[in-house]
UniProtKB/TrEMBL annotation:
<dbReference type="Pfam" id="PF09250">
    <property type="entry name" value="Prim-Pol"/>
</dbReference>
<dbReference type="InterPro" id="IPR015330">
    <property type="entry name" value="DNA_primase/pol_bifunc_N"/>
</dbReference>
<feature type="domain" description="DNA primase/polymerase bifunctional N-terminal">
    <location>
        <begin position="16"/>
        <end position="192"/>
    </location>
</feature>
<feature type="region of interest" description="Disordered">
    <location>
        <begin position="295"/>
        <end position="330"/>
    </location>
</feature>
<protein>
    <recommendedName>
        <fullName>DNA primase/polymerase bifunctional N-terminal domain-containing protein</fullName>
    </recommendedName>
</protein>
Amino acid sequence: MDTVAPLVGAALGRWALELAGRGWPVYPLRPGAKFPDWHRGDHCPGTGRCRGGHRTPEQMATTDPELITAAWGRAPWNIAVFPGPAGLLIIDCDPAKPGPGTMDGWTALQALAEQRGGPLPDTFTVTTPRGGRHLYYRAPAGCALRSTQGHLAAAIDTRGWGGYAVAPGSVRADGAYELLDDTDPVELPGWLVQANVDHGVTAVSGRTDTAVAVPGAFAAAAVREECRKVASTPYKQGRNKALSRAAYALGQLVGADVLAEDVARAELRAAVDSWGDAASIPKDYAVIETSLSAGRHNPRRITPHSTRTTGTRRHRAASPRKDTVAWTSD
């Protein structure tokens, strides 16, 4: 009889209860993994908790000790913390990517703080099995920050609304997520709030040959529109097609040298994250990569036009809503 699994499950259950006691909603991740124990939106059976429409782990995450005790009593689930409902923003500093001159996320974050002249205060911090770290900050009141991918720097992601972080106590075959600093989360410094929402030059789809007066302004307005379309596509109404089209269009502008590929990727991933369907993210990110590459190999032709100006369309992001807490069982 395996006597290890119950002990691991009990330890993980205690961690889940402690985090929930801080007011941070948690949700089970598959044992030994970092993906939710839940179906993707495109595989939703429309039954049980999803009888009224697909529900995401972010919507079902809970701080209820009875539900948590019952769930972790059944299996040694790893733990996800959902920072959006918790009023947090988690900065995910990855190890350095392979290649010459690359920088790990923690070093890049320190360099960014020095560049912007802002503080980087001690806060609740977790180390990851591969040597990264997660820094937990309180989001400023009234500030709903979304998740981003590579927006602050190549090896830095952020987890806000639409994302989650693997919590301390969780274990994988390659190691554990361990608490490095138990300092209560401090408020996200203003310079990091600003850096998290800054946007670079980006672009949009259209005719093969486009005349514009100011390519940079054209690109900035266009990417907002493409990502707006992706973020606003309703569930089960062509999300995969909308994402593929937008990524292909932005890839064409990457090929035309009016859009940086890392910016296009980060903006598209942020739009996907806003769907709040964490289980579908690996598939959606793969669509982005494939379509970006295809568009890059068929670049748009951008020509100057001295008399044409490009307008911009302002839009207001929908405020995230908190759904009634439910749990995983049907």
